[in-house]
Design goal:
The structure is a homodimer of 294-residue chains. With 294 residues, chain A is α/β, with parallel strands linked by helices. Chain A folds into two domains: 9-181, 3-Layer(aba) Sandwich (Rossmann fold), CATH 3.40.50; 186-289, 6-phosphogluconate dehydrogenase C-terminal fold. Chain A has helices at 19-30, 44-52, 63-67, 82-89, 107-117, 161-173, 183-209, 214-220, 223-228, 236-245, 247-269, 273-289, and strands at 9-15, 34-40, 58-59, 72-75, 98-101, 124-125, 127-130, 150-153, 177-180. A six-stranded parallel beta sheet of chain A has the order 3-2-1-4-5-6, sandwiched between helices. In chain A, strands 7-8-9 form a three-stranded mixed beta sheet, with helices on one face. In chain A, helix 1 links the parallel strand 1 (9-15) and strand 2 (34-40). In chain A, helix 4 (82-89) runs parallel beside helix 5 and helix 7 (183-209) crosses helix 11 (247-269). The two termini of chain A are 13 Å apart.
Chain lengths: 294, 294
């Protein structure tokens, strides 16, 4: 992944000092592309921990103080808190700042941002880095989290072209592969390849874990089960917000999935080995060809 | 994983020179615990490739020739071919040999073995190493595949205790963690932690891959999707046999899963954020605690 020199940032404000925000701060710092990093979290402990770990240089008392003077703002809070967080900082945002989020849903985030920011919406670019890590918290922040990672930017008619270009250059400089999609198209796509898989993994893990002999079953589970259920360890508050915000698309994808499952169950019930094999063969060939980032 | 010295094997016959059989041969060879290795595959090309790769020393013209004189026989063929393969070698099996399979279902395998082997059933120990690798073929054979791997032995009333003990010692010497279960209990457990997850992964991958904008969707998929669908690349003939052989148990597990999914879909439809979160929280906490081999 060719990495260009990151656009220099004087002052980065990280609102929400968790895995995503912390990793962004570390990545910029590693690239020697940032002057000072100010952090704010609703949980004071998280922000203090981020300072102890050297992820941020200072902890602000509130979001408005954190963003004051910042030319780059990264909002990393549960998506349902987007509007509230942006409203709290609106008056303090520099007119020439770039403000981005990292949320997993975009239609709700863009609407909340437009409503909360008012005329300052031109500073905002919706961003979704599709990074995979089940452990939350700044302790697991990683300067390489975004290297090779797909980042989707979701501009709207209100997005300032210069901010979009700056956001694009910034993520690319961290090694990310940047795509652009409308917020609705983003949510439809992510329902299929991320949100529904999480819902299925939550359901599949619990279906095993609630059986009478669950400890014995889980002791017999192998690497296939481990990988299949990895995403079932996702953060409850984060995934609650994502699934609720994008529920229409997720439920639509669930209907498609159930139809596929039903087809397989019917072939099994009928003992139709040929149908079972051809249904598997199609998925197997497709999955064997597919590569992450391909 | 403490490894004891493997019981010495004079002559190993590998029937079915693919990933599992080839890896077993390589593991024994690495442990300097085998004299000569003879291979046979219904596909002559596989057996010849195994010889070229040094996985077997010689290729036999048929299964009976391969097992003649062998004190250890490893059968590694699709489970539905078990009876036919054992019948073809029955007369040539040494009375003091140990014969094992590596199939993913056990009730059908034990029944087929009893029927095909007649009095020679006392040489047979059903074995299922729960090893995870999606690429089939001896090219992907790996001397360390069974190191740390869970292996389930499925003795019946007809199993000779000395053969069971020999099988146990042999797998442990390769670093495996050995459990013993009845064939039916094995199949019930594996339906939950392996067979249904495969069925779900096949269905989930195809549900995405058949959408109009599948190439775009798949290009946006991240590491979560990669891991969740890894097992969807499983071998069609192998999984056809497993799912058909164990279909009652798999369908029973599918019913449990669908009930869990329905609960989540209902909570989403109702926009009940608290219910969604608590359903996720239970799965997330359970999956975060679970460890492979724990």
């Amino acid at each position: 992944m060719a990495q260009s020199r990151p656009p220099a940032v004087e002052r980065l404000a990280v609102i929400g000092c968790g895995l995503m925000g912390g990793s962004f701060a570390l990545a910029l710092r590693k690239a020697c592309a940032v002057g000072r990093i100010v952090g704010f979290s609703r949980s004071a402990a998280s922000a203090l921990r981020a300072r102890e770990l050297g992820v941020v240089d200072e902890v602000a008392a509130d979001a408005a103080t954190a963003v004051t003077g910042a030319d780059l703002i990264l909002l990393s809070v549960p998506v349902a808190s987007t509007g509230q967080a942006l409203a709290a900082m609106r008056e303090a945002i520099r007119p020439d700042a770039l403000c981005m989020d990292v949320g997993s849903t975009k239609a709700d985030v863009m609407a909340a941002a437009a409503s909360a920011l008012g005329p300052r919406i031109d500073t905002f670019v919706g961003a979704h880095p599709i990074a995979g890590k089940e452990r939350a918290g700044v302790e697991h922040a990683d300067a390489t989290l975004y290297d090779g990672c797909r980042v989707i930017l979701t501009p709207t008619a209100q997005t300032h072209p210069e901010r979009l270009a700056r956001a694009d250059a910034l993520w690319r400089s961290l090694g990310a592969r940047v795509s652009t999609l409308g917020p609705e198209a983003h949510d439809a796509a992510l329902a299929a390849v991320s949100h529904l898989p999480h819902l299925l993994a939550f359901a599949a893990f619990r279906a095993v874990a609630t059986q009478d002999d669950a400890p014995s079953l889980l002791s017999l589970a192998g690497p296939g089960f481990r990988d299949f259920t990895r995403i079932a360890a996702g953060d409850p508050a984060l995934w609650r917000d994502v699934l609720i915000a994008n529920r229409e698309q997720v439920l639509d994808q669930a209907r498609r999935f159930r139809a596929e499952l039903q087809t397989r169950e019917s072939a099994l019930s009928a003992g139709d080995a040929q149908a079972v094999e051809s249904l598997i063969a199609e998925a197997s060939a497709g999955r064997s060809r597919w590569r992450l980032g391909g």
